[in-house]
Design brief:
Oligomer: single chain
Structural class: alpha+beta
Number of strands: 16
Largest sheet: 8 strands, mixed
Number of helices: 13
Strand order of the largest sheet: 3-2-8-9-10-11-1-12
Shape: globular
Order of helices and strands: EHEEEEHEEEHHEHEEHEHHHHEEEEHHH
């Protein structure tokens, strides 16, 4: 028999502040949403005061804007330009150094300091699914990334179920939101009522989540509050106007290699790589070797890269994908089709970041639908 279900509890804003304080006291580095440079970014926070209280976001193809809410919601927004991958799959990583020692070189390994223990606060269901996708990439095969594993093993996840959606969201059609049922330690649903401070329905997903909730006050949630939480998820799903039709998409994209749509889209695409940088599942990197002017010291670094850069497909003789059309085709077909061959899942979780942060507003869902129509049958 499994463990008995843990009844959800209702937390006040003060209880939530206490929850974050307990995590910090337990040695976790708190990572959560905060406002910086006109966006809601994901960064280290000291506690509740750093969360974006009363801030909302407006998103559409090629558009992002912050605005004030009429309430004090702490999570009255959706995903921003940062995903959680940068804390598990760092944008740059020193692999080793080498220093001249007479006629030989002495190799220095990466910093041996213990990795930080992160508490991710405010992980949306689509991003929770993205972390699971990256787990497959870095932990699921014969070759395990030791840096990712060391960082991932210590993560405590506080998910926030979505009660609102934006114009770029389409996670309902990818099966990754707006509500998560597993994969978290604690899940919060923010309950907003007129003329009342926000409250938070908290559900434990693991034993350590239950232990954390037992350390804060709270009280058992009543049926009315459970109903409000369920209604919030339904409201978010009903607000989604975009949809990615996934049935048969893998096969359709595999048959679309000669479609004229690629060249049509390439006329708009800037090959800026914004879509890959904001994507929570993209994982491509390059390796760079650097030396100092004396030639006595060298280092090898791993840095994020993108299939939109010309050099990414460079081999002896030049780049394989020279045109914007070929690079866009590589990205989209890998994301929605050949990911299945490699990892048994799609590389898209419906977060909509690539739509919002594309400077020219290229819409992945629109492109996928158009390519279905032009794909040649196998």
């Amino acid at each position: 028999m499994g463990d008995p279900p843990r009844p959800p509890v209702l937390l006040t804003t003060q209880d939530l502040a206490a929850l974050l304080a307990v995590l910090a006291a337990d040695g976790y580095t708190l990572i959560g949403p905060t406002v910086r440079d006109g966006a809601i970014v994901t960064d280290e926070i000291a506690g509740l005061s750093d969360l974006p209280r009363g801030v909302s976001d407006e998103q559409a193809p090629g558009r992002y804007h912050l605005s004030r809410r009429a309430d004090d919601a702490l999570f009255g927004h959706v995903v921003g330009p940062h995903s959680w991958k940068r804390f598990l799959h760092p944008p740059e990583l020193r692999l080793f150094g080498a220093s001249r020692d007479g006629k030989a070189f002495a190799i220095s390994p990466p910093d041996g300091a213990p990795p930080p223990r992160y508490a991710f606060v405010g992980v949306r269901p689509c991003d929770l699914a993205a972390i699971a996708r990256q787990d497959r990439v870095f932990l699921g095969g014969a070759f395990v990334d030791p840096t990712y594993r060391a960082l991932r093993d210590g993560v405590f996840v506080v998910t926030v179920q979505c009660g609102e959606a934006r114009a770029s969201c389409f996670c309902a059609s990818t099966g990754t939101g707006p509500r998560a049922d597993s994969g978290f330690d604690v899940a919060l649903t923010e309950l907003i009522a007129e003329a009342r401070a926000p409250e938070y329905l908290a559900e434990a997903g693991t034993d350590r989540g239950a232990t954390l909730l037992a350390k804060v006050a709270g009280r058992k949630a009543d049926p009315e509050e459970l109903g409000r939480a369920a209604a919030a998820s339904r409201r978010a799903e009903a607000q989604m106007t975009r949809r990615l039709e996934t049935d048969g998409l893998r096969e359709a994209l595999a048959a679309s290699g000669e479609s004229s749509r690629w060249k049509e889209t390439a006329k708009r695409c800037l090959s800026c790589a914004n879509c890959t940088m904001v994507c929570p599942t993209c994982f491509c990197t390059t390796v760079e070797d650097t030396t100092d002017l004396t030639g006595d010291h060298a280092e090898r670094w791993r840095r994020w890269d993108s299939c939109f850069t010309m050099d990414f497909s460079y081999i002896h003789g030049g780049s394989i994908r020279r045109s914007a059309a070929s690079r866009y085709r590589q990205w989209l077909t890998h994301k929605l089709s050949t990911w299945w061959d490699q990892f048994g899942a799609s590389g898209c979780v419906g977060c909509g970041r690539c739509i919002t942060w594309c400077p020219v507003g290229i819409d992945l869902t629109e492109e996928a639908a158009a390519l279905r129509k032009t794909a040649r049958p196998a």
